[in-house]
């Protein structure tokens, strides 16, 4: 038996806004950040659970406070008990009768639960000596459905239907695991397409993306129509007719505006339109999807929980479902969402980028291929070449594919030195930065 | 010109769980709490802006941290500028490009924005020497639509349509103000109906409600069907056939379960079924509404923002819209929601109770009667007889009606002594409580 003896949170922020990496129509100046969590036990095996919520700067302190508020659920507890029944552990956190009021099941508090749950999965996978995708991919259908809270889902997916999906995928698990290790899982890249980049940089990066083996790139759109047309023309010229180009409006439009705007972009051959409007607007997405068909609508990085995804599927509001490793309440809820997508026959193309999102979410797509949907058809994981060096197990992307991690864990562990350097406001980087600013202020004043 | 010189937050908690006041199928043990905010300027007039987010205990610290994170938007700013264009102030807060990631527009961060916005409205009303309902009710239609962010609403309500609604209601404003002051605004009471109460207490309180002039009571349901049937029978026997009885499941059911359960309760004459399932489930509410008609479906206290309300109305998912003073981003967003309800011809019956929710939300219903819908038909404000003594301007409810406050402000100011006594964990009450528990622990140990 081992006891959780430390639950440590850190407010980690990277100064990405200075390079306009990650700039889009709604997020002009993100500082990619992580509200970070480390769970330590007295087991003596040196294994720890790490998890985080990705944010884009201000408010990372609030998210860190929310994770800290969950400490009593973990600290001093029997680790084996917490890890043995992750379905029960999830419910205990998500159904806290008082904390629930702050959502329910959405926003700051729900994402904080996700960080705790993901940290526990990281620890569980390390103890099993397996990467998370493989740990999940070896669980029985019964064990997997026990992870899922079916409350509010049963009008679209029952426990029995979920079991049927998982049983149907069981026979091919070993073969698909071998395929995955040999071929990897397709990725696509958003690196060329940030709004803040010049056309020259876009063109250069689009060429590089094709050379690197990617079959799809993605461009941010939605700030200015003429700019979008010019940038899409440049991108199409750079990549040729075969490479897919998706576009992403980051929630910029109302329904009618989305439909009209996409009418002007359709000629460039659009692989999907991502986040055309509010992530809360199920009926709005459905109206847009009907109007812009056959262009598929993609969304999910800001979809708050499984209940909204359920409705998006019921209403045929999305044709590409984009899970995110840190938006919902962790691995358990993402398993529920993968099962919903499988039930409705919708492809899953995860949102990634940010800090550690690629490292974490790849496990879910790979698990989905091995044990849920059983297919990679039309599916790919977003790739952005940012900040991977800060992770203990950085992604291995080459030839346009993610290659499966073989290191035990869930991928969310950051290097201790990176945490120390970028903790806000007292880490080495931010202290030095504050000093530089003071010097500059003095120089300006002089 | 005056400057905001202090923004003070407090984590205020009342130990309501000890009496089972406020107990329902999802919230068995709430400690009614307020993440509280006080805004002070250097104007020298002694007027302050007060606002809060209502929570039910744990997590009130996280909500308080979220409000504190908004301090830079207020502290050191020119108060006249902030108050002069409340529409611009709202957008500045709600559209912060980094904080937005924590929602967008939902949960902890969105409610925190509501506290700041409501505190500013409280100050603005005090400076105008008017209760908030009257300040709003004297603004021109143009000024009122300028408060509203129409982003994501235009497929259901445009600025021009909103203006039309407000212009149509303009002629009768003075007469309806006089009516309101003379007759009050109808209330209904939830006091008899908490799940934790015995049948005897329920019956006694139901009798008292009728004697007090209420035309509707509400019962919590959803934990156990046989209990619900027995309690409804007792309530109906107590109040007779004329008084309306609404029921509230507090999100307890899935769609099919809600429909089946309500089939068993219909015989008691149900005025509405409130929160039958997840507040995020627009399509689920619509399915339930179709199945249980003519019983109306009511929801809103946990509806996160105007985008979800819009869809609830588009889908005919609710027939009674329940605004809440502290769930969305303050007065501005509630004005948007009142306009949406008016557009769709749906009645608004606010959620109240908690801490200060009655004091705050009455202003919105009264404003709606004076300047938006122009009617009280089928409308009433929830009344719970809890914790009003802690407010500087407690509600005035008699003869089953809320009588309009005439004191300047938005109603959200708590007595300084109450804040001091119930601040957690260092206020007088909680310190004494901790000492008592220590003594009890020692006695048990002995």
UniProtKB/TrEMBL annotation, chains A, B:
Pfam families: MR_MLE_C (PF13378), MR_MLE_N (PF02746)
Cofactor(s), names only, from the UniProt record: Mg(2+)
Signal sequence bounds: none
Chemical reaction(s) catalysed: L-fuconate = 2-dehydro-3-deoxy-L-fuconate + H2O
GO molecular function terms attached to this record: L-fuconate dehydratase activity; magnesium ion binding
Enzyme type, top EC level: lyase
Domain Mandelate racemase/muconate lactonizing enzyme C-terminal: 199-295
SUPFAM superfamilies cross-referenced by the UniProt entry: Enolase C-terminal domain-like, Enolase N-terminal domain-like
Enzyme Commission code(s) on record: 4.2.1.68
Cross-referenced InterPro entries: Enolase-like_C_sf (IPR036849), Enolase-like_N (IPR029017), Enolase_C-like (IPR029065), L-fuconate_dehydratase (IPR034610), Mandel_Rmase/mucon_lact_enz_CS (IPR018110), Mandelate_racemase_C (IPR013342), Mandelate_racemase_N_dom (IPR013341), RHMD-like (IPR046945)
Keywords annotated in UniProt: Lyase, Magnesium, Metal-binding
GO biological process annotation, one example: amino acid catabolic process
Protein name: L-fuconate dehydratase
Source organism of the structure: Arthrobacter alpinus
